[in-house]
Design goal:
The protein is 43% helix and 19% strand. The protein contains 20 helices and 22 strands. The strands form 5 sheets. It has a 9-stranded mixed β-sheet with strand order 1-6-5-4-7-3-2-8-9, covered by helices on one side. A 5-stranded mixed β-sheet has the order 10-11-14-12-13, with helices on both faces. A 3-stranded parallel β-sheet has the order 18-17-19. The protein is elongated, with a radius of gyration of 40 Å. The termini are far apart. Bound molecules: adenosine-5'-diphosphate (ADP) and magnesium ion.
Length: 681
């Protein structure tokens, strides 16, 4: 037996290895198995090249657990190592790279967790001694056993070994006993080795016999050696992609479609991304993409590697070019990673464009599910916006789909306002805003359905992108005012009559929310009474609800307009009834007001150019007296009108109808309305 000392500066790097990678000890298994896979692949390459001429035999990599002797063994039938090679690769190269690694990253220990770089020496995280028993494929060389107990001293001796290849035996440390558990090891193999290219056997297949689980004679193979992403797209059918999806996410609904990534220049990247069917909460759906490095699982948190919006996708990305032994912040600034990220964005956009172009019908059918990815992407990545603006769709309230360009053409003639702005009308709830949508349609307007999770943000975003355009919710105003044009309509009621009716209608309005009565001259066929809420106020309130830091608006009471159409027959009827009931009385009051008003105006005119101190106290008192008188009379007038309004069933009925069509009539008010309607009939 030979003894030697591994040549390192640090006296003992093993405690450091243990300490720094404390929370990530489990990766030792991934490292040992990747080495076994590498050694096997090398043998296959030699065999293909004709440099290895013997039988290769069964190349299965075997993992075995000996709970009694507290060992885990990884055996391969790969190239093996000669004594010289062990000295070179294990003692010198592997050791010094492990040491470099620690030197380099000891300040960012948490950043490197889960990533490559430590290789063979990571076995000392869990083992108090490691033996390597190996026989090289090279003829005439002697099998050797290398052994090291975690100090820089090692021993190496010749041994008898029948089969070519390497057994790495870990003598598990007392504080790592957790790894001497079959389920734990099986779990780790499933996590890291599920798609490695050489078969890995761990124990035997089990089956149920006489109510008991018993081992069969068949090896239990952990992995799928040829996962779909490593195959050529031309070899794969739709079912293969679906099957692979089920392999990755056994309990998920079928995805919408997939994108097969296959790049070899300027970096190496393969993978399959799936657009999943997304349910309610998009936050919960993130972190489903798995990142692999040559088929070895690395991580499933891919922020920084793919653009934020793509973290909603599912699937795998495999790249040997993503530097894995570095911290996350470094990763995000790495230029290779940036290129990969923008490449994936481009690929995703191209694929969507392709489906849109080749099969618009399918695209439209899937739009409601796709929309959230596309909008999220357009909101967060300008580059994606630039591509997606050509296939992103608007769905109108009649379920027709339009691209942005098509839609602009559709509404250009009819929905341009007097200031040459294009007005996009939208509805956030097609059912609730039904009457407004109907009114808009009757004017020949088109209304977009914007009922999705991100639509409010999306509208704000589009307004920054579309020139000379704005979005207005269809119930933001009466239809004639939604898109202001020059033509203004005459009112069939005079200013005084409108003022009177303002009090009459106000008498019947609910106390909450706050309403103001306004008159808007419209066509006689338009609704007599409508309820609207200003676009600005509503958006501010919506944003404060979503936590946009606009609490000021959130705290304001809801403010609505009760819009009365003076040209509607029913409104005129109310005006007439009012005159019949109160005409004489109002006339008397007016006759009293008028002379006072006149003398007040005269006095004010006379005093117009005077300074405050030039007006006599007597005059000031007289003025005050007159104002008081006028106020009194006006209050009387108002009282009369309010009294009339309160008694008037038609007024109440019209207001309730307007409330009803806005879904604002509830409970007792609703049942009273129904009763009153029956009476009126
Ligand atoms: P890396 O795999 O990155 O080269 P490791 O520390 O994991 O670094 O391994 C160091 C070297 O030891 C490998 O490059 C290889 O030459 C040799 N080696 C490790 N395990 C095996 C094995 N099972 N069979 C043959 N050679 C091995
Ligand atoms: Mg390795």
């Amino acid at each position: 037996m030979q003894k030697g000392k591994i040549n390192v500066k640090a006296d003992n790097i093993f405690p450091i290895i243990k300490k720094f990678l404390y929370s990530d000890h489990e990766i030792f298994l991934r490292e040992l198995i990747s080495n076994a896979v590498d050694a096997t692949q090398k043998l296959k390459t030699l065999s293909i090249a004709g440099d290895y001429k013997d039988e290769m035999g069964d190349l299965t990599i075997r993992v075995s657990l000996d709970e009694k002797n507290k060992t885990i063994t990884v055996s391969d039938r790969g190239v093996g190592m000669t004594g010289e090679e062990i000295k070179k690769y294990i003692n010198e190269i592997a050791f010094s790279s492990a040491e470099d690694f620690i030197q380099k990253y000891k300040d960012h220990a948490s950043g490197i967790i889960g990533h490559f770089g430590l290789g063979f020496y990571s076995s000392f995280m869990v083992a108090k001694r490691v033996d390597i028993l190996t026989k090289s494929y090279k003829k005439g060389t002697k099998p050797v056993k290398w052994s090291c107990d975690g100090s820089p001293e090692y021993s190496i001796e010749e041994i008898e070994k029948e089969t070519r290849g390497t057994d790495v035996v870990l003598h598990i440390d007392d504080d790592s006993k957790e790894f001497l558990d079959e389920n734990r090891i099986h779990g780790l193999l499933k996590k890291y080795c599920k798609f490695l290219p050489i078969e890995i056997a761990f124990g035997k297949e089990k089956e149920w016999k006489d109510g008991k689980e018993v081992e069969t004679g068949k090896d239990r193979i952990i992995n799928n050696v040829k996962p779909a992403w490593t195959r050529k797209p031309s070899e794969l059918k739709e079912e293969d992609y679906l099957e692979f999806y089920k392999e990755l996410y056994p309990f998920s609904e079928d995805p919408l479609f997939h994108i097969h990534l296959n790049v070899d220049y300027p970096f190496n990247l393969t993978g399959i991304l799936y657009f999943p069917k997304i349910k309610k909460n998009i936050e919960l759906q993130k972190n489903k993409i798995q990142l692999y490095c040559n088929q070895v699982f690395v991580t499933d948190s891919v922020e920084g590697i793919v653009p934020e919006f793509l973290t909603l996708l599912h699937g795998v990305i495999d790249s040997p070019d993503i530097p894995l032994n570095v911290s996350r912040s470094y990763l995000q600034s790495d230029s290779n990673v940036k290129k990969i990220s923008s490449h994936i964005t481009k690929k995703v956009a191209d694929k969507l464009m392709e489906i849109f172009k080749n099969n618009r019908e399918e695209f439209e059918n899937k739009w409601e599910d796709l929309k959230i990815f596309i909008q999220y992407g357009m909101l967060t990545e300008d580059k994606f916006y630039d591509k997606a603006k050509d296939f992103s769709l608007f769905r109108n309230t009649e379920d027709n789909y339009f691209t942005f360009d098509e839609y602009e053409k559709l509404i250009k003639d009819n929905q341009t306002d007097k200031d040459k702005n294009l007005v996009y009308l939208y509805s956030t709830d097609v059912e609730k805003q039904y009457s407004f949508i109907e009114a808009a349609k009757s004017k020949g307007y088109d209304v977009i359905a914007m009922e999705g999770q991100l639509d409010t943000h999306f509208i704000n975003h589009l307004e920054t992108k579309f020139e000379n355009s704005r979005f207005v919710r269809v119930d933001a105003d009466v239809v004639d005012k939604l898109i202001p044009k020059d033509e203004s309509k005459e009112s069939k009621l005079s200013k005084e009559e409108q003022d009177d009716l303002t009090d009459v209608f106000a008498a019947q309005l609910p106390e909450k929310p706050v309403f103001s009565v306004v008159f808007e001259s419209m066509d006689e066929n338009e609704s007599p009474v409508t309820i609207t809420q200003s676009e600005f106020m509503r958006r501010m309130k919506d944003m404060s609800e979503m936590g946009g830091g606009m609490n000021f608006y959130g705290d304001m009471p809801d403010n609505y307009n009760l819009v009365v159409n003076p040209n509607h027959e029913l409104v005129q009827r109310i005006s007439k009834e009012k005159t019949e009931a109160l005409g004489e009385e109002l006339k008397r009051i007016s006759e009293k007001i008028n002379p006072v008003e006149e003398s007040k105006q005269e006095l004010e005119k006379a005093n117009k150019d005077k300074k405050e101190e030039e007006i006599s106290q007597e005059e000031k008192d007289r003025l005050e007296e007159m104002e008081k008188k006028i106020n009194e009379l006006q209050n009387k007038r108002k009282e009369a009108l309010t009294g009339f309004g309160k008694e008037n069933k038609l007024v109440k009925q019209l207001i309730d109808l307007a409330l009803l069509s806005n879904n604002m009539l509830k409970g007792e008010d609703l049942s009273r309305f129904v009763r009153r309607s029956i009476e009126l009939i």
